[in-house]
Amino acid sequence: MPSQRSLIHPRDEIMQTMGRIYGYRMTTTSGGNLSIRDEAGDIWISPARVDKGNLTRRDIVCVKPDGTVDGPHPPSSEFPFHKAIYDVRPDIRAIVHAHPVALVAFSICQSKPNTRLFHQTHTISGQVGFAPYACPGSEQLGKNIAATYAAGCDSVILENHGVVVGGETLARAFERFEAFEFAGKTLIKASQLGKVRYLNDEQLQQAAQRSVDLVSVDPPVATQNERELRRQLREFLCRGCRQRLLISTEGSFSARVDGDSFLITPTQQDRETLTVDDLVLVSHGRRESGKKASRAVLAHQAIYQKHPDVQAIVFAHPVNATAFSVTDVPFDTRTIPESYVFLRDVDCVPYGVQYQNDGKIADYVSAASPAAILENDGVLVTGSSVLDVFDRLEVLESTAEAVINAAVIGHVSVMPKAVIDELRSAFNLN
């Protein structure tokens, strides 16, 4: 993902990013630290012993190249390893260190996640490394971590400690951190289901090399319906990220405006921070000028063309449902009435179907089967409105989590055919 020129002051960027990490429960009140190295060589870093859930811009500390400190607090006790990384990697301009639960689990098992679960996560996480333990804040810890970065690593598990990731901007480092933790969480959940399936080089290339180049056109004046759909999409994208049904670098969400037009998320932009203006109008196979639609745009278009009843679509990566996508374990919705009524039978789409431009992805969903598991790529959900799709996505993820948890308790008992027939009759399910 290309870097962008940041116009946000480092104090505000660190404060906002830490608020997001803390809000996602990916660190604790006392744990974790963020830093940015600016063009002058100053290192802006979160302070020591200040509540991470209540940082203000005034709390952020600036450490000058000569070691002098500007700020009301001492810098994080982990400042030495931040500086050590910057010293060996001039390309890195921002660092995220935290203790997210899944990656901490790997750190205390002296292991690191295999990010070949998904093409996007593998690409974003970069080269994965492991740094041996040393006392927090010590010079030795800095040396251990710097050695892994000097070897070209981008995302590093710290033995019995946590994780540290670097990037060319803080936004990029955050995306890398989030994607790395997502891979770790999915691996843990999938391992509870069965054997985990990873992608080979050819499969990774197949996804990475796909591209979409729609002709651009100046859009007409927005109708009130389009404006309302933009508002709804933005609202549910933010909610989805905050509920961890979506992550900032994965997935696409769209809504039909009319028979031949739909709005869709742009490519390579943080899902949670999108504005109504960022969403891309696609009409008659042409995209709104000045914007670039999600690379999944042709898959969305194919579904709308084949299914006039579909009014909204989401491709997403909620952790528990995505765990099914990386194993051969079938996803059974016959668990509680809500799950079956909302989702019916959920099909599994072979790897790569959604990347093709032949429209075959539309064959895997219908009014009678509105959701599907995408092999090694999360889930696909369709519906009659943006709200309907989001509701189904929530039910899909809740069902997946319940099934995974139930397996720890005992045998999963699904509802028998007589109950399913009763539900189909009671709710007029075709």
Give the end-to-end Cα distance, rounded to a whole number of Å: 43 Å
The count of DSSP E runs of length 2 or more, i.e. the number of strands, is 17
Largest sheet: 9 strands, mixed
List low-confidence stretches. none
Average residue-wise pLDDT = 94
**What is the domain tally?**
2
Reading the helices and strands in chain order gives HEEEEHEHHEHEEHHEHEEEEHEHHEEEHH
Task: Count up the helices.
Answer: 13
User: Which structural category do the helix and sheet elements fall into?
Assistant: alpha+beta
**CATH topology of the largest domain, which one?**
L-fuculose-1-phosphate Aldolase
EC number: 4.1.2.17
Pfam families: Aldolase_II
GO molecular function: L-fuculose-phosphate aldolase activity; metal ion binding
Domain Class II aldolase/adducin N-terminal: 12-188, 235-404
